[in-house]
Amino acid sequence: MVSRAYDGFPAAVGVSRLTVYDWPTVDGLPGGGTPHLHLTCGEGYVVTAGRGAVQTLTTSGFEETPLEPGTVAWFTPGTIHRLVTGGGDGEGLEITVVVQNRGLPEAGDAVLTLPQDLLAGPGTYAEAIRVPADSPEAEQAEAVRIRRDLATRRFLELREATENGDPEPLRAFQRAAAELVRPRLDAWERQWRQGAHAAAEATRAQLDALRGKDDAHLTAARVFATAPAASGRFGMCGRLAVYPGV
Fold first, then answer.
1. What is the mean pLDDT of residues 165-186?
2. pTM of the model
3. How many C-beta atoms lie closer than 10 Å to residue 190's C-beta?
4. Could you tell me which of 41, 80, 236, 82 has the C-alpha nearest to residue 162?
């Protein structure tokens, strides 16, 4: 029996290159991204240039993890995270981002820490985060900066409440985020089955084949390469270079 193959990027992860926004933040830092969490996707950072930190908030509390070239940092779903730049070295913070479940973050598996009234429903939230795609770049940048600053202010409020021993504001945000994505779950499951689940099943099939002295899948080996499909795209945390099918 020929074991099943999976031709996507290893483990069906997504990869992008990120340059963190250098716009000054509402709390006086040289630059930073938009705080948000993922509902089902872990995320990892491989720092390639610059210095800064990733600020994280969970029910366990607030943490700040320093980032510099060579650092690899990652976190699990449910972690509110905010990238901030260190400044002062003349070099922007650049990161290769590796994210679990390729395609799900792009399909809505990320919720910004907006004020609670803007999380009231999918339509309200979609309008609050909308970036006018057909507008001039300066207008897009202004929209992204406004939503970043709005989310940052709420992140700082959530952090303060958590540090003061009041977990309810953070829990209320988590509940609202989960409710926002509930209508998408069937579509997400289909995408997961075609991606991460299929990749894991391919490994299971290959293990079974090798155990049965069937090495036919080795003869079907292939090599793939790609270049960015788009560079400079406005993302949640910075300007992105994104890759097709990765």
1. 97
2. 0.94
3. 10
4. 80
Is the pLDDT reported for residue 80 higher than 80?
A: yes
∠ CA 157-126-174, nearest 5°, is: 40
Structure confidence at residue 131 (pLDDT): 94
- Tell me the two tokens of residue 10: 């290893």
Q: Which two three-digit tokens encode residue 107?
A: 């399909």
Q: DSSP letters of 202-234?
A: HHHHHHHHHHTT--GGGGG--------SEEEEE
Work out the average pLDDT over 80-97.
Answer: 85
Per-residue confidence band for 133, with pLDDT thresholds at 50, 70 and 90: confident
Q: Compute the Cα dihedral for 179, 181, 184, 188 and give only its sign.
A: negative
pLDDT digits (tens, 9 = 90+) for 190-205: 999 999 999 999 999 9
